Amino acid sequence: MPTNFPIVRLKRAPEARERIKGRKARFPKKIPYDRQAQRLGQVFANAERSLASYASDVSVAADPRAVVPDRCLVFELLGDVPEFNLAAQALGLDWLANEATTGDAEFDEDVAPDAPERQPAQRLYLTMPTEQALRRLLAQWKRYTSGVAPGDDQKGLWKLFDYLHKLRVWSVEDRLDPTLADYVAKMLANDPEEGVIVALDLWYRDDDDRRDESLDTLNEMLDEVGGELLDQVDIPEIRYQGAFIQVPGNVAEQLVQGNGRIARFHDVMTIRPQSAYESPIEGDAVSVATEQEAPQLDGDCIAALLDGYPIDQHELLAGRLTITEVDVHGAQAPALTRHHGTAMASLIVHGDLKSPDTKPLNRPLAVLPVLVSPGGTRKEVTPKGKLPIGVIYRALKTITSANRRVNPDLMGVIVINHSICDVYAPFVRRSSPWAMLLDYFSHAHNLLFVVSAGNVFLKRPGFRGGQLV
Question: Which domain holds residue 262?
Answer without folding.
Answer: 175-274
